[in-house]
Amino acid sequence: MNNNNRVTSLEIRRMAHKTFFKDIKGNIALNIFPILMRLIAMYFGTQIYNSWLAQLGVSMSNPEEASKKLTAITQQMATDPSTATKYALSLTPGSNVVVYAFAFFFVLICAGVGYTMVDKMRNPDYEINAFKDSLQVFSNRYFFPVLFITALFGIFVEAGLGFYLLPGIWFFLMFSQSFYVFKDDVDKTGKWSLRMAFASFSRSARVIRGHKTTLLFICIEFFLWEIVNLMTHEILSIWLHPYEQLTLAAFYTKMSELDKAKSDQQAA
Questions:
Q1: CB atoms < 10 A from the CB of 181, how many?
Q2: What is the pLDDT of residues 123-132, one digit of tens each?
Q3: Alpha-carbon dihedral sign for residues 114, 115, 118, 119
Q4: DSSP secondary structure string, 111-163?
Q5: CA–CA–CA angle 217, 221, 224 (5° rounding)
Q6: CA 246 centroid distance within chain
C-alpha cells in the first residue's frame, strides 16, 4: 500500500477529539444508555465478585488475611489443576442468559451510537437526537441483521480465541468494521438482506487491509484507559465511552474514504 495512504492512530484520535469537543453535551447525551449500562454492570459485577469471595471464605475487610487466602488458593490450583473447578466463579443458567442478553443489548446500543458518530464525522452539522439516534438499531431497518452480525462476529472471535490468542485478535481486527460497512450498504440501497450481512464481513476485511496495526494500537490504548476506568468504578465512562465510540467511528470514516478513493482509482 502506498505510504501516503497510511493512517496513524494519532491522526484518528485528533479527528475524534475535534468532533467530541465541538459538541461535548450532545456526544455524552448520545452515549447515556451505554454509560448507564456500564455503571449497572460494574455494580452487579462487584456484587457477584464479593459473593464469590465469600464462598471462598475470603473477606476483604481484612486485606492481609484475604491476600494470604487467595495466595494459598492460587498455589493449590498450580499444584493440582483439577481443583480449579472448585474455586471457579460459576453462574446459574438463568444468570448466564441475563448476562448474554445484557451484552447483546449493550452491543446493539453501541452500534446505534457508532452509526450516529459516523454520520456526525461525515457531516459536522448533523444534529444529534440522543434518544432516537442511540436506539436506531432497534428498528426494522437494522435490528435483525445487526443482531445476526453481532452473533456471527462473536462466533468468529471466540473460535479464533479457541485456537490461540493471536487468531482471536486477528479475527476481531479483520471483522471489526462489519457493523459500519453494513450501515453504509443499507444507506445506499435502502434495504437489507442476510446476504448483505454476510458480505459485510468480507468487505470489512477489505476496508481494513493494511490498517490492522493502527486499529490494534487504538485498542491497546482503550485497554489501558479501561484499566484506569475500573479504578474509578466506571465513573470515567462519562468521558471515556464517547471518546472510544468517536475514535472507532473516526477510524472507519477514514478507512471508508481511503477504500472509496482506491476503488475510484482502479475504476478510472
A1: 27
A2: 988 889 999 9
A3: negative
A4: HHHHHHHHHHHH-TTPPP-HHHHHTTTSSTTTHHHHHHHHHHHHHHHHHHHHH
A5: 140
A6: 12
Distance between CA atoms of residues 192 and 148, nearest Å: 12
- The amino acid occupying position 86 is K
Distance, CA of 227 to CA of 107 (rounded, Å): 20
Q: What is the pLDDT of residues 78-114, one digit of tens each?
A: 787 777 777 777 767 778 888 889 999 999 999 999 9
Are the beta carbons of 107 and 150 closer than 8 angstroms? yes
Residue 222 burial (10 A CB sphere; 0-12, 13-18, 19+): middle
Take residue 124 and report the three cell numbers written for it.
459536522
Cβ proximity of 31 and 113 under 8 Å = yes
- Binning the chain into helix, strand and coil, the percentages to the nearest 5 are 80, 0, 20
CA angle 47, 243, 10 (to 5 degrees): 130
CB atoms within 10 A of CB 173: 20
Helix axes 143-163, 194-207, angle to 10 degrees: 50
Q: Is the pLDDT of residue 2 over 60?
A: no
Chain Cα centroid distance, residue 55: 32
Confidence of residue 3 (pLDDT cuts 50, 70, 90): very low
Q: Is the pLDDT of residue 159 over 90?
A: no
Q: In the chain, what is the straight-line distance between the N-terminal and C-terminal CA atoms, in Å? A: 18
Whether the Cβ atoms of residue 146 and residue 111 lie closer than 8 Å to each other: yes
CB 69 within 8 A of CB 55: no
Please identify which residue in the block is written with the cell numbers 475470603.
Answer: 58
Q: Which DSSP category does 59 fall into?
A: -
SS3 208: coil
Q: What is the DSSP letter of 83?
A: G
